[in-house]
């Protein structure tokens, strides 16, 4: 079943080349076998043949407090084959980046830890520097922009949203554009499944978000436990959809009930964060002079860590 995931991240100075190597599975990541496709675009002349030079220059010459890249991480539908997924990603890149920014993207397709199926997703990494047609050296490219004499300064940088409210709205609109593009390609290839960029709360669905299991934790599960999780996920998703169809969103009792449930989930989340912070403080306080952790001291303070 197609699932929604889109996250936006920024990388600081010194992070770009390592992250580009990670997503394209190069250098120390070359032994990973889940790379489906990698592509680069809009690179300046000095990086067209070696895109890694661009990200290396960003790390070296970008301002100390500047970001070297912006990244979209998106889940891709299993229902599409590799060629169709590539078509979808390229279409989204064309829509969001066009010819304005240098970019690198990669599609990964690892094996899902629970059901063993495909888990395709894309990393789209872009520079915030705008291509203006002026040729610059690597060092000048990342200098501060000179509005009066553009050729004397660096490439202009896209300004981030001015306020948190505007940033939130920009992200919401980006999520909606990915939803529309994803569903357009699914329909084009004969699939009725759609994704929805809204939160469970905004969709009126009362259930907890699905728990993610990494390969390490999933490896400790028995086949029976994995099957139980798969069954539970399928049931909860189907039940949530049917639930949403049957809800009267004007019912005051339902509005009151959903409000109470959300408050309870927020309380649980807050308590979990408090416990995690307290655990971190205890672990820090329990380092012995030799540099070892005093496990008994942590246990005696009333926290169980699964030992």
Task: Give a quick rundown of the structure.
It contains 9 helices and 5 strands, in the order E-H-E-H-E-H-E-E-H-H-H-H-H-H. It has helices at 16-24, 51-61, 82-96, 138-141, 164-188, 215-218, 223-246, 252-285, 295-300, and strands spanning 6-12, 35-41, 67-75, 103-108, 121-126. Helix 3 runs antiparallel to helix 5.
Describe this structure in words.
With 307 residues, the protein is α+β, with helices and mostly antiparallel strands. The protein folds into three domains: 6-188, BirA Bifunctional Protein, domain 2, CATH 3.30.930; 199-247; 252-307. 43% of the residues lie in helices and 11% in strands. It has a five-stranded antiparallel sheet, sandwiched between helices. The longest helix has 34 residues, at 252-285. The two termini are 37 Å apart.
Order the strands across the largest sheet as they lie in space. 1-3-5-4-2
Helix content: 40-55%
Order of helices and strands: EHEHEHEEHHHHHH
Report the mean per-residue pLDDT as an integer.
Answer: 80
- Radius of gyration over C-alpha positions, nearest whole angstrom: 23 Å
CATH fold call of the largest domain:
BirA Bifunctional Protein, domain 2
Largest sheet: 5 strands, antiparallel
Into how many domains do the coordinates divide? 3
CATH class of the largest domain: Alpha Beta
**pLDDT under 50 segments (min length 5)?**
213-219, 290-307
Summed up, the helix count is 9
Give the class from helix and strand content and strand pairing: alpha+beta
End-to-end span in angstroms? Answer: 37 Å
Shape: globular
Extended strand count: 5
CATH architecture of the largest domain: 2-Layer Sandwich
Q: Provide the β-strand percentage band.
A: 5-15%
């Amino acid at each position: 079943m197609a699932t929604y995931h889109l996250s936006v991240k920024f990388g600081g100075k010194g992070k770009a080349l390592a992250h580009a190597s990670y997503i394209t599975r190069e250098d120390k990541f070359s032994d990973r076998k889940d790379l489906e496709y990698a592509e680069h675009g809009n690179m300046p002349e000095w990086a067209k043949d070696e895109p890694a030079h661009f990200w290396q220059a960003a790390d070296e010459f970008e301002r100390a407090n500047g970001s070297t890249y912006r990244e979209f991480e998106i889940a891709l539908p299993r229902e599409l084959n590799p060629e169709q997924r590539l078509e979808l990603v390229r279409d989204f890149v064309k829509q969001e980046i066009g010819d304005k920014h240098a970019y690198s993207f990669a599609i990964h397709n690892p094996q899902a830890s629970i059901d063993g199926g495909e888990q395709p997703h894309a990393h789209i990494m872009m520079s915030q520097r705008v291509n203006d047609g002026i040729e610059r050296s690597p060092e000048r490219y990342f200098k501060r922009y000179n509005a009066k004499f553009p050729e004397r300064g660096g490439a202009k940088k896209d300004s981030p949203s001015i306020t948190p409210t505007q940033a939130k709205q920009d992200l919401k609109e980006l999520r909606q554009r990915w939803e529309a593009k994803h569903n357009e390609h699914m329909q084009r290839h004969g699939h009725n499944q759609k994704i929805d960029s809204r939160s469970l709360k905004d969709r009126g669905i009362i259930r907890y978000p699905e728990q993610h299991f990494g390969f390490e934790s999933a490896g400790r599960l028995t086949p029976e436990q994995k099957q139980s999780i798969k069954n539970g996920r399928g049931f909860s998703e189907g039940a949530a959809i049917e639930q949403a169809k049957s809800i009267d969103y004007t019912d005051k009792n339902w509005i009151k009930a959903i409000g109470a449930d959300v408050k309870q989930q927020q309380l649980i989340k807050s308590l979990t964060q408090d416990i995690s912070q307290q655990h971190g403080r205890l672990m820090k306080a329990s380092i012995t002079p030799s540099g070892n952790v005093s496990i008994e001291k942590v246990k005696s303070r009333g926290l169980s860590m699964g030992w």
